[in-house]
Design goal:
Structural class: mainly alpha
Low-confidence stretches: none
Strand content: 5-15%
Shape: extended
Largest sheet: 2 strands, antiparallel
Strand order of the largest sheet: 1-2
Number of strands: 2
Mean pLDDT: 87
């Protein structure tokens, strides 16, 4: 499904990273949409936008977690700096998700 969505998005977005990210997000969203609607009786309108905004933060957070784990074994004192950066990043991540979920009309229920 992703290659078809990416070809469609090629008309609108010239930046390859954004186009591929949107294609994967929209493909997963469209593939799970019937299941989500059937099981949960709701459709999230903001989910694709939230996924595109959160994806770079998740990549950065995973990198910081790996650095934290490595430095906590080898240089325990340095691991404090990575844990502080990770704490700030996760705080921003959670606040952003809470903000997006608090917007009006982001979920349609049935």
């Amino acid at each position: 499904l992703s290659p078809f969505v990416e070809r469609f998005l090629h008309r609108f977005f010239s930046w390859e990273y954004l186009r591929k990210s949107l294609a994967v997000t929209l493909s997963a969203y469209l593939a799970t949409l019937p299941f989500s609607f059937f099981v949960f009786h709701q459709i999230s309108v903001i989910a694709p936008l939230a996924n595109v905004l959160v994806e770079p933060l998740i990549t950065l957070a995973m990198s910081l977690v790996l650095l934290f784990l490595f430095t906590s074994v080898v240089f325990p004192v340095m691991s404090f700096f990575f844990s502080a950066g990770l704490s700030v990043l996760l705080f921003v991540f959670i606040k952003g998700i809470l903000f997006l979920s608090s917007l009006p009309f982001v979920v349609f229920t049935w």
